[in-house]
Design goal:
117 residues; mainly beta; 3-stranded antiparallel β-sheet
């Protein structure tokens, strides 16, 4: 596995092995918004968009041009969650690190503005 880091973003990429009889692939199917963005969820999980973790995903409206996609995520208070979104038109990947504020499912969104938290 190769570990790529750019700032706080971290992506793990498996190294291919020739003639590996146990070579498996994992695919994620996600709907995309009209703005081209789709939520991939937690890239380090086998089920990256589990409904137990993400019970609501929606497209952003035109009021906030920097907003990519909205989602409601659950977990434990102060848990760190890395959530990814990809643009189908450009291939741009954004990974946002979120520290959950409480135990309830709270609404968050990914922005194209890197200074917005």
């Amino acid at each position: 596995i190769i570990q790529l880091k750019k700032g706080d973003n971290e992506i793990l990429v498996p190294l291919p092995v020739a003639n590996d009889p146990f070579d498996t692939k994992l695919y994620t199917i996600t709907p995309f918004c009209l703005n081209g963005w789709g939520l991939l969820g937690e890239l380090t999980k086998y089920v990256s968009l589990s409904t137990k973790r993400f019970n609501s995903v929606s497209c952003c409206d035109d009021e906030n041009a920097d907003c990519v996609v909205r989602f409601r995520v659950g977990g434990t208070k102060n848990e760190i969650v890395k959530v990814a979104a990809v643009n189908a038109f450009s291939g741009r990947l954004i990974v946002k690190t979120i520290k959950l504020r409480n135990n309830d499912r709270e609404m968050y969104f990914i922005s194209t503005d890197p200074t917005f938290d």
